[in-house]
Amino acid sequence: MKAFNFKEEIYWVGAVDWNPPDFSPCLTNGTTYNSYLIIDEKVALIDTVKHGFTQEIVSRINDVNNLGDIDYIIIGNYHMDHSGSLPFLMKKAVNATLVVTKKSKKAIEKYHGGNWKFKVVKDGDTLKLGKRMLLFKEFNLNGDKVLLTYSKHDKILFSGDLFSQHIASYSETDRNIQEIQNNALSYFVNYLMPIKSLPDISEIELLAPNHGIIFSQNTKMIIEKYQDWIKGKSKNKVLIIYSSVWRGTEKMAYAIAEGARNTGIEVEVINYEKKDVGHILSKIFESSSIAIGCPSFKKGIPIEISKLFYNIELIGLKKKSIALFTCYSDNNSPIGALMEVASKIDFRLIEKPLEVQYMPSESELIKCFELGNRLGERTKNNKE
Question: What is the DSSP letter of 68?
């Protein structure tokens, strides 16, 4: 397997996983485990790959450099998808020193138990490879400090999970920017929120993250997008989320969507049983107003709705306008249970929930249309 040379003396030597196990959100497009080799007077490898992909990283390293000549293996992220192949690599790279934070050293020793040479670094420390001086930045991510690596000589930030995307692709750079941006937003919402700021490094021409595509052509754009996302900026968009058993709630959802669309605003409709929760969360993030509907479910609400609200609270999504609706066939409406879970998140309920029994009549569908129209106008005028 071939390494990918994206900067003088710097190579991508990672692995592509087209069908990863469904252990976390947003993996339907696959992913990559990115590892980077820098060849200078000293040779450094930045992160490794998941166990099971060792053959790929070894083959790519050996394509451009002898594995045994590696002087440093820098572990920015000790999780197993970035350090899983370490035990085998260290058998071959016998002279390599592992460059880690104090916490990463503890985790790697616990995960792998290797009797290896370590160099513990902290924020602001440097490592000279030759003409390159690497600068290490510790970045607080969900209470955990990850290690970012910056090469001023190349103006590259090896950014860890920042700017990552779950995309399986052999197109290593950012040509199809719209697809990449959508996946970057999904990763930001599901894995990184809440973030207060980006690392303070001014000269960056390339971003080399842990997962997905390397940013070389659209670096400034994705940094600006991140700055907007950190501020919580959303589109003037209405999102309708629902599920339905006998199409009653679905008819309501479509009528609400039609009413919102009639105001000229962007509208999207999602059946939450047919989409990954991570996908839905990213759509909620980019929308100003949300309408959520559910059908009858015993004496409560479907587990998928509970899971969705739990994740909204968990990642800190806030300051959205929300409307609730239902078409139910049981004796009791699920709206009470729906309002209970909705009360736990920082969304503003804009009006009394809309309730229909059995199947919406023509007059009730008109009420749904009118609700959508009010949502659209509210969003159009950017009212909070």
Answer: G
